[in-house]
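re: ur question from the group chat, yeah i did fold both. here u go
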Amino acid sequence: MRKMINNCNIARDLIPQYAENLLSDGSREFVDTHCSECPDCKKILDTAMVDIQTKNEKRQEEIWSEIAKKQKRKKIMIKSIIISASVLIVITAIFFCSFILKGNTWFVNIDISESNGYKTGTELSTDMAHPGKDEVDKAAQAVIKYFQNNFGGSILLSLKYDEELTSSNMPSIVFEGDYFMLQEPVAGDMSRMKNNWHWYVDYNKTTEEWQIIGNGYD
């Protein structure tokens, strides 16, 4: 009887490892033999086998769930990369259009500080009164728009209100500016950098807008 009890204790110690399939052939054979003769230990073994099967199934579910999560994260990452690449392509296209197809005015420095008059566009005539800063600013914006539409492949660097030339060309507003040509200069033009370029802007009373009437070197 004592031997049977000892065998039960040994078998029950080995059953968890038996269920995990971690025993040597000899130990496994001992558990099989004992449980075939001991109903109580057989019940414990059966319970352990059910538990380990449930545990393994749960572990499998967790593994597949983790795989599914990784695949989902991978899809999200790929989608993010595609979106980022698409945004980069769009930005590059905008950059290309801005710098090559259209005149670029991102870096232009506008100086209208010397404009200290009071006349509005509709009031300007051939008198010597200087236009107000609001009108000079509107005229400068007209130059920028004109540059963007007509000076593709170039960068407008500066635009300064020229009070002296404006006085001698009233009612036109005159700006002096510099710009740089990204593209190869035209035949006979040896420099890409255009310094002291002049812009002549006049007020159209019909459209009530400032418009470019001329540009170039004096």
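okk and heres the other one u asked abt
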Amino acid sequence: MTFATIALIAAIATLGLGLGFLFSSTTMLKQWGMQAPNEAKVMSRRIGAVYLGLSTMLSLARTSMPTTEAIAIGGAVITGLLAISGLYELKSGRVSKGILISTVVETLITIGFLSSLIKQ
């Protein structure tokens, strides 16, 4: 199997997993035979963000885009979605203000990845 083929298959699979964990965490956890308390759902949604970033990275890696750019964009998607997810969970009252440390770091990493894409 070629890299382009397996990358496409993996991109589609991780897209499905990411959307499932991000938007239907209770269903995903119950399919695993797990309870779905808020703590598990918070972590599920964060895993969904990672899967969506990985899907982005794999999709881009199969094109003629340079690998470093695909990784930078995928990394920015992962860390950007994690930051957004953290703020969403804080606003919803499911996590404490302690998550702000993570969201600041994730935001800075996102900015770093995006800034690496700017041609000098």
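fwiw on the second one: Residues 3-116 form one domain. The radius of gyration is 16 Å. idk if thats what u expected
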